[in-house]
Amino acid sequence: MKNMTRGQQMFTGIIEEKGKITGVRKGAKSSVLTIEGSVIFSDLKLGDSVAVNGVCLTASSISGKTFSADVMHETLDRSGLGALRPGSSVNLERAMAAGGRFGGHIVSGHVDAMGTITDIRRDDNAVWYTIKAPRDVMKYIVEKGSITIDGISLTVAVVTTDSFKVSIIPHTAKVTTLGERKTGDKVNLENDIIGKYVEKLLFFGPDADSPYQAVSDKKDAGQSSGLTLEFLKENGF
Q1: Topology of 113-192 in CATH?
Q2: Potential cystine with 115: which of 31, 37, 133, 154 (Cβ 3.0-4.6 Å)?
Q3: For 2-39, how does the pLDDT look when each residue is reduced to its tens digit (9 = 90+)?
Protein backbone atom coordinates (compact mmCIF):
# COMPACT_ATOMS: atom_id res chain seq x y z
CA MET A 1 0.00 0.00 0.00
CA LYS A 2 1.06 3.62 -0.43
CA ASN A 3 2.85 4.84 2.65
CA MET A 4 2.42 8.60 2.24
CA THR A 5 -0.54 10.77 1.27
CA ARG A 6 0.59 12.33 -2.00
CA GLY A 7 0.13 12.03 -5.75
CA GLN A 8 -0.14 8.59 -7.32
CA GLN A 9 3.17 7.14 -8.49
CA MET A 10 3.62 4.34 -11.02
CA PHE A 11 6.17 1.54 -11.10
CA THR A 12 6.75 -1.23 -13.62
CA GLY A 13 7.86 -4.12 -11.42
CA ILE A 14 11.27 -4.25 -13.13
CA ILE A 15 13.67 -4.24 -10.18
CA GLU A 16 16.62 -1.89 -10.57
CA GLU A 17 18.78 -3.36 -7.84
CA LYS A 18 18.90 -5.21 -4.55
CA GLY A 19 19.46 -2.87 -1.65
CA LYS A 20 20.16 -3.55 2.01
CA ILE A 21 18.48 -2.42 5.22
CA THR A 22 21.11 -0.64 7.31
CA GLY A 23 18.87 0.65 10.08
CA VAL A 24 15.43 0.17 11.63
CA ARG A 25 14.18 2.73 14.14
CA LYS A 26 10.95 1.55 15.71
CA GLY A 27 8.35 3.90 17.14
CA ALA A 28 5.25 3.05 19.13
CA LYS A 29 3.41 1.87 16.00
CA SER A 30 5.55 3.10 13.12
CA SER A 31 9.16 2.83 12.06
CA VAL A 32 11.88 4.50 10.03
CA LEU A 33 13.84 2.35 7.60
CA THR A 34 17.30 3.28 6.36
CA ILE A 35 18.19 1.61 3.07
CA GLU A 36 21.49 1.35 1.23
CA GLY A 37 21.72 1.08 -2.54
CA SER A 38 23.73 2.19 -5.55
CA VAL A 39 21.88 2.45 -8.87
CA ILE A 40 18.86 4.39 -7.61
CA PHE A 41 21.03 7.19 -6.21
CA SER A 42 22.00 8.43 -9.66
CA ASP A 43 19.12 10.91 -9.49
CA LEU A 44 17.25 10.24 -6.23
CA LYS A 45 15.99 13.40 -4.54
CA LEU A 46 14.24 14.17 -1.27
CA GLY A 47 10.54 13.39 -1.60
CA ASP A 48 11.02 10.89 -4.43
CA SER A 49 9.13 7.60 -4.34
CA VAL A 50 10.93 4.27 -4.17
CA ALA A 51 9.25 0.86 -4.19
CA VAL A 52 10.86 -1.22 -1.43
CA ASN A 53 9.82 -4.86 -1.80
CA GLY A 54 6.84 -3.52 -3.71
CA VAL A 55 5.80 -0.91 -1.11
CA CYS A 56 5.87 2.69 -2.28
CA LEU A 57 7.90 4.73 0.24
CA THR A 58 9.04 8.34 0.22
CA ALA A 59 12.68 9.30 0.67
CA SER A 60 12.56 11.61 3.69
CA SER A 61 16.34 11.95 4.01
CA ILE A 62 19.34 11.05 1.86
CA SER A 63 22.94 10.60 2.96
CA GLY A 64 25.51 9.28 0.52
CA LYS A 65 24.22 5.97 -0.80
CA THR A 66 21.49 5.57 1.84
CA PHE A 67 18.01 6.99 2.21
CA SER A 68 15.49 6.86 5.03
CA ALA A 69 11.73 6.47 4.81
CA ASP A 70 8.94 6.67 7.37
CA VAL A 71 6.65 3.65 7.48
CA MET A 72 3.16 4.04 8.90
CA HIS A 73 1.37 1.60 11.21
CA GLU A 74 -1.06 0.48 8.50
CA THR A 75 1.78 -0.22 6.08
CA LEU A 76 3.56 -2.38 8.65
CA ASP A 77 0.33 -4.32 9.27
CA ARG A 78 -0.39 -5.01 5.60
CA SER A 79 3.08 -5.74 4.27
CA GLY A 80 6.24 -7.58 5.21
CA LEU A 81 8.23 -4.41 5.94
CA GLY A 82 7.79 -4.91 9.68
CA ALA A 83 9.85 -8.10 9.51
CA LEU A 84 12.88 -6.41 7.94
CA ARG A 85 16.06 -6.19 10.02
CA PRO A 86 19.49 -4.61 9.47
CA GLY A 87 21.17 -6.71 6.80
CA SER A 88 17.91 -7.74 5.08
CA SER A 89 18.00 -7.55 1.28
CA VAL A 90 15.22 -5.58 -0.43
CA ASN A 91 14.12 -5.01 -4.02
CA LEU A 92 14.36 -1.37 -5.12
CA GLU A 93 12.71 0.48 -7.98
CA ARG A 94 12.32 4.20 -8.52
CA ALA A 95 9.00 5.58 -9.75
CA MET A 96 8.74 5.40 -13.53
CA ALA A 97 9.97 8.48 -15.36
CA ALA A 98 7.61 10.08 -17.89
CA GLY A 99 9.83 9.06 -20.81
CA GLY A 100 10.93 5.74 -19.35
CA ARG A 101 10.63 2.31 -20.97
CA PHE A 102 7.63 0.32 -19.75
CA GLY A 103 8.99 -3.20 -19.33
CA GLY A 104 6.67 -4.80 -16.77
CA HIS A 105 3.06 -3.91 -15.95
CA ILE A 106 1.25 -1.14 -14.06
CA VAL A 107 2.38 -1.34 -10.42
CA SER A 108 1.17 1.20 -7.87
CA GLY A 109 3.21 0.17 -4.83
CA HIS A 110 0.00 -0.49 -2.86
CA VAL A 111 0.33 -3.97 -1.36
CA ASP A 112 -2.97 -5.89 -1.28
CA ALA A 113 -1.90 -8.63 1.13
CA MET A 114 0.88 -10.97 2.07
CA GLY A 115 1.22 -14.43 0.57
CA THR A 116 3.19 -17.46 1.78
CA ILE A 117 5.69 -19.46 -0.28
CA THR A 118 4.60 -23.08 0.10
CA ASP A 119 6.93 -24.75 -2.40
CA ILE A 120 10.11 -23.99 -4.35
CA ARG A 121 11.09 -26.40 -7.10
CA ARG A 122 13.89 -26.32 -9.67
CA ASP A 123 13.05 -27.20 -13.27
CA ASP A 124 16.28 -27.23 -15.29
CA ASN A 125 17.33 -23.56 -15.42
CA ALA A 126 14.02 -22.24 -14.04
CA VAL A 127 12.69 -22.11 -10.49
CA TRP A 128 9.00 -22.60 -9.69
CA TYR A 129 7.45 -20.84 -6.71
CA THR A 130 4.05 -21.81 -5.32
CA ILE A 131 2.44 -19.05 -3.29
CA LYS A 132 -0.67 -19.35 -1.14
CA ALA A 133 -2.72 -16.15 -1.10
CA PRO A 134 -5.91 -14.86 0.55
CA ARG A 135 -9.22 -15.18 -1.31
CA ASP A 136 -9.42 -11.41 -1.86
CA VAL A 137 -6.16 -11.62 -3.80
CA MET A 138 -6.85 -14.89 -5.63
CA LYS A 139 -10.04 -13.57 -7.26
CA TYR A 140 -7.98 -11.15 -9.38
CA ILE A 141 -5.29 -13.65 -10.40
CA VAL A 142 -5.62 -15.23 -13.84
CA GLU A 143 -3.40 -17.63 -15.76
CA LYS A 144 -0.90 -15.72 -17.94
CA GLY A 145 -1.85 -12.54 -16.13
CA SER A 146 0.48 -10.31 -14.11
CA ILE A 147 1.20 -10.32 -10.38
CA THR A 148 3.66 -8.31 -8.32
CA ILE A 149 5.65 -10.29 -5.74
CA ASP A 150 7.84 -8.15 -3.46
CA GLY A 151 7.76 -5.52 -6.18
CA ILE A 152 8.71 -7.91 -9.01
CA SER A 153 6.45 -8.04 -12.06
CA LEU A 154 5.89 -11.72 -12.87
CA THR A 155 3.62 -13.80 -15.11
CA VAL A 156 1.23 -16.24 -13.45
CA ALA A 157 1.73 -19.74 -14.85
CA VAL A 158 -0.75 -21.82 -12.80
CA VAL A 159 -3.78 -20.87 -10.70
CA THR A 160 -5.64 -23.02 -8.14
CA THR A 161 -8.38 -22.09 -5.68
CA ASP A 162 -6.03 -20.78 -3.00
CA SER A 163 -2.60 -20.54 -4.60
CA PHE A 164 -0.73 -19.71 -7.78
CA LYS A 165 2.62 -20.52 -9.36
CA VAL A 166 5.26 -18.44 -11.09
CA SER A 167 8.44 -19.57 -12.81
CA ILE A 168 11.52 -17.37 -12.81
CA ILE A 169 14.74 -17.43 -14.81
CA PRO A 170 18.23 -17.40 -13.24
CA HIS A 171 18.65 -13.66 -13.93
CA THR A 172 15.55 -12.81 -11.88
CA ALA A 173 16.73 -15.02 -9.01
CA LYS A 174 20.13 -13.31 -9.06
CA VAL A 175 19.08 -9.66 -9.20
CA THR A 176 16.06 -9.83 -6.84
CA THR A 177 15.36 -11.17 -3.37
CA LEU A 178 13.33 -14.11 -4.71
CA GLY A 179 16.56 -16.07 -5.07
CA GLU A 180 17.04 -15.75 -1.29
CA ARG A 181 13.52 -16.80 -0.34
CA LYS A 182 12.69 -20.07 1.39
CA THR A 183 9.56 -22.16 1.88
CA GLY A 184 7.40 -20.54 4.55
CA ASP A 185 8.57 -16.98 3.81
CA LYS A 186 5.99 -14.22 3.51
CA VAL A 187 5.93 -12.04 0.38
CA ASN A 188 4.14 -8.81 -0.52
CA LEU A 189 1.48 -9.21 -3.22
CA GLU A 190 -0.10 -6.58 -5.45
CA ASN A 191 -2.73 -7.53 -8.01
CA ASP A 192 -2.91 -6.08 -11.49
CA ILE A 193 -5.01 -2.96 -10.97
CA ILE A 194 -6.99 -3.35 -14.21
CA GLY A 195 -9.09 -6.20 -12.79
CA LYS A 196 -10.04 -4.07 -9.80
CA TYR A 197 -11.27 -1.24 -12.01
CA VAL A 198 -13.29 -3.62 -14.19
CA GLU A 199 -14.97 -5.12 -11.12
CA LYS A 200 -15.73 -1.66 -9.76
CA LEU A 201 -17.34 -0.55 -13.03
CA LEU A 202 -19.37 -3.74 -13.32
CA PHE A 203 -20.81 -3.68 -9.82
CA PHE A 204 -20.91 -0.03 -8.80
CA GLY A 205 -24.60 0.83 -8.48
CA PRO A 206 -26.24 4.25 -8.83
CA ASP A 207 -27.18 4.33 -5.13
CA ALA A 208 -23.64 3.81 -3.81
CA ASP A 209 -22.85 6.00 -0.79
CA SER A 210 -19.58 7.36 -2.19
CA PRO A 211 -17.33 6.97 -5.23
CA TYR A 212 -14.81 5.18 -3.01
CA GLN A 213 -17.19 2.60 -1.58
CA ALA A 214 -16.15 -1.03 -1.96
CA VAL A 215 -18.20 -3.31 -4.21
CA SER A 216 -21.70 -2.99 -2.81
CA ASP A 217 -24.28 -5.57 -1.84
CA LYS A 218 -25.76 -5.08 -5.30
CA LYS A 219 -23.11 -7.50 -6.52
CA ASP A 220 -24.84 -10.33 -4.66
CA ALA A 221 -28.23 -9.13 -5.85
CA GLY A 222 -27.06 -9.17 -9.47
CA GLN A 223 -27.56 -5.42 -9.95
CA SER A 224 -25.04 -3.22 -11.70
CA SER A 225 -24.51 0.22 -13.17
CA GLY A 226 -25.34 -0.96 -16.70
CA LEU A 227 -21.83 -2.00 -17.73
CA THR A 228 -21.96 -5.72 -18.50
CA LEU A 229 -19.63 -8.45 -19.69
CA GLU A 230 -21.61 -8.59 -22.95
CA PHE A 231 -21.05 -4.86 -23.48
CA LEU A 232 -17.30 -5.26 -22.88
CA LYS A 233 -17.08 -8.18 -25.35
CA GLU A 234 -19.04 -6.29 -28.02
CA ASN A 235 -16.60 -3.38 -27.70
CA GLY A 236 -13.44 -5.41 -28.00
CA PHE A 237 -12.49 -5.88 -24.34
Answers
A1: Elongation Factor Tu (Ef-tu); domain 3 (2.40.30)
A2: 133
A3: 454 445 678 999 999 999 999 999 999 999 999 999 99
Contact status, residue 40 vs residue 140, Cβ threshold 8 Å = no
CA distance 149 to 168: 12
Domain ranges of the chain: 17-94, 113-192, 194-234
Fold match, 17-94 / 113-192: yes
State the CATH class of domain 17-94.
Answer: mainly beta
- Tell me the Cα Rg of the chain: 19
pTM value is 0.81
